[in-house]
Design goal:
Elements lengths: L3 E2 L8 E7 L13 H9 L6 E7 L7 E5 L2 E5 L1 H4 L2 E5 L1
Antiparallel strand pairs: 1-6, 2-3, 2-6, 3-4, 4-5
Length: about 90
């Protein structure tokens, strides 16, 4: 399966992180946005396995993501920066 945004997945989905996109409006500089930098610091790095463990309804926002032994709550807007390859 081809890489997709983490924000498009539903409860029970598993896979591997491929990349974290920079969602900042770049004006010629190569600095990353605060959100993408923070996601990398939290462990959303290429090769890391993940599982979508819960979605809040209605709307599915935020979503709970298990990464290693830690569970994170991410808004879909934040999760859209994480590119993953579903299992």
């Amino acid at each position: 399966m081809s890489p997709v945004s983490l924000a498009t997945l539903r409860k029970g989905a598993r896979g591997v992180v491929v990349d974290v996109r920079d969602d900042a409006q770049s004006l010629g500089d190569e600095s990353q946005s605060t959100v993408s930098r923070r996601l990398l610091e939290l462990g959303f790095v290429p090769g890391e396995a993940f599982e979508v463990v819960e979605e809040i309804w209605p709307g599915g926002d935020p979503m709970a993501i298990r990464l290693g032994n830690t569970t994170f709550a991410l808004r879909r807007r934040e999760a859209s920066s994480v590119i993953v390859e579903p299992a």
